[in-house]
Amino acid sequence: MARYRAGLETRDRILGAVRTLLSSNGLEGTTIKAICAAAGIQAGSFYNLFEGKEQAILAVVRQAIGAVDPDPDHHGTDTVEELTAAYVDFITSQPDLARVYIRIGVGAGLGGGHSGETFLAHHRRRVERFAAAIARGNKAADATRQAEVMLAALNGLAVQWLLDSDTDFEGLAKLAAGRVAS
Amino acid sequence: MARYRAGLETRDRILGAVRTLLSSNGLEGTTIKAICAAAGIQAGSFYNLFEGKEQAILAVVRQAIGAVDPDPDHHGTDTVEELTAAYVDFITSQPDLARVYIRIGVGAGLGGGHSGETFLAHHRRRVERFAAAIARGNKAADATRQAEVMLAALNGLAVQWLLDSDTDFEGLAKLAAGRVAS
DNA sequence: CTGAAACTTGAGCAAAGATTCCAATTCTGA
DNA sequence: TCAGAATTGGAATCTTTGCTCAAGTTTCAG
User: Fold this and answer.
1) Sign of CA dihedral A88, A92, A97, A100
2) CA angle B11, B12, B18 (to 5 degrees)
3) Which of A12, A127, B38, B156 is most enclosed, with most CB atoms within 10 A?
4) CB-based burial of residue A67 (10 Å sphere; 0-12 exposed, 13-18 middle, 19+ buried)?
5) Cβ-defined contact of B106 to A108 (cutoff 8 Å)
6) CB within 8 Å of B124: residues ≥ 6 apart
7) Is A152–B145 a contact, with Cβ atoms under 8 angstroms apart?
8) What is the pLDDT of residues A61-78, one digit of tens each?
9) Is the pLDDT reported for residue B112 higher than 60?
10) Residues B141, B137: Cα–Cα separation, whole Å
11) Does the C-beta of B36 come within 7 A of strand C?
């Protein structure tokens, strides 16, 4: 059961393929055949390293959810601007994972699959973190509500940027953050 | 070729089934079998009324895109609050179509399918309409940028509400609209 | 070196999916 | 009422999908 080096490498190759496919074609484009072709392997190899398609996809989904909220240590000291900048950085520097993240978020909200719970929990944590940062810099009583609007705007802007990369994501995000911070 | 009444009725039944399935399960849950089961018909009947699965789906997608922006006549006289209220109303009163709309928007932006162009055009029109309304009530020079943030926030809030219907969509939307209108 | 465990291949299978065909039935205008 | 077109059911077909299997190759601890 202990993996050899070769196995770990193709495992990464597979996850990369899944990420790319999930990002550009969504669930329906992500077939075993396509995954294997993109990873340059054969079906049998895939099933030697993963229990099934779903497991591989969930691994990538976890990557995506994990990547959106780095430095959980900082919790309690960050500002709205920092949190916003971190999100903008994640989206623009890792567009593939970002696309997966957005897809999951939307899919979770709509389909209610079993990742819906996971995503909802993640989202709540995120709202809390933003709300705490807002409350710290601004004495408004409705910090949570402001955080909800702020996150909604950020997510919406992310979708827009992924749709049309000419969008000034960073600038618009700052504009939104400025509204809340004051 | 001229349709009889019976045909038109089952056609509607099919579109309703597609809308429901698309809304709750996304593209991957929307199979011919599921459509026919939900519509209470047989496969042959489906292919008598539609050229294929894709055509039926596109019909529903068009419905969704069309429903989001009613009263194109009013163009030029509406306020940000009115546009916002109309959107909130659409999302909350037709959640099925709304889910389809959101899914298409996200899918289009990410997958770049051939509906991507259609959706992008629709989105630009929407931004313009909001920008015009903003410019009318507010002398800011960056009406378009504000419209982009506003729409992003609305879409993000819609996703959030579809994910968790306890969200105070209407209240938060008004809060966002207020920021822009002043 | 060596052998057991890990890795890879590629054919093959069962189930599910989309689509076609056609005989049987139902409409509708004249 | 009648003929022709529209509609319908349901079996048949062809493709795709997710997955298994057996046989051969590579890796690496002892």
Assistant:
1) positive
2) 90
3) B156
4) middle
5) no
6) none
7) no
8) 999 999 998 777 777 789
9) no
10) 12
11) no
| pLDDT value of residue B141 | 83
- Tokens matching residue B77: 């006289």
Name the nearest CA neighbour of A97 among A23, A39, A155, A41.
Answer: A23
Tokens 């079998």 sit at which residue?
A: B33
Main-chain dihedrals φ then ψ at residue A142, nearest 5 degrees = -100, 50
Q: Does residue A175 contact residue B176 with C-beta atoms inside 8 Å?
A: no
Give yes or no for residue B72 having a pLDDT over 80: no
- Test A179 with B175 for CB contact under 8 angstroms: no
Q: What is the mean pLDDT of residues A120-143?
A: 91
- Which tokens sit at A45? 């190899």
Mutate to test the interface with B, among A102, A138, A150, A163 (most CBs of B within 10 A): A163
Q: Residue A79: what residue type? A: T
pLDDT of the residue at A112:
56
Classify residue A33 as exposed, middle or buried by CB count within 10 Å of its CB (0-12, 13-18, 19+). Answer: exposed
Kind and range of the H or E run holding A99? helix A95-111
> What is the rounded average pLDDT of the residues A93-118?
83
Helices B80-93 & B143-163, crossing angle to 10 degrees? 20
- Return d(Cα B78, Cα B168) in angstroms, integer: 24
B3-59 residue pLDDT tens:
899 999 999 999 999 999 999 999 999 999 999 999 999 999 999 999 999 999 999
Q: Which residue has the higher pLDDT, B29 or B117?
A: B29
Helix, strand, or coil (residue B167): coil
The two three-digit tokens of residue A98, written as one number: 């970002």
Nearest to B27 by CA among B65, B58, B69, B62: B58
Q: What one-character-per-residue DSSP string does B57-89 give?
A: HHHHHHHHHHHTS--GGGTTS--HHHHHHHHHH
Determine the residue among B88, B163, B165, B180 to mutate to test chain A binding: the one whose Cβ has the most chain A Cβ atoms within 10 Å: B163
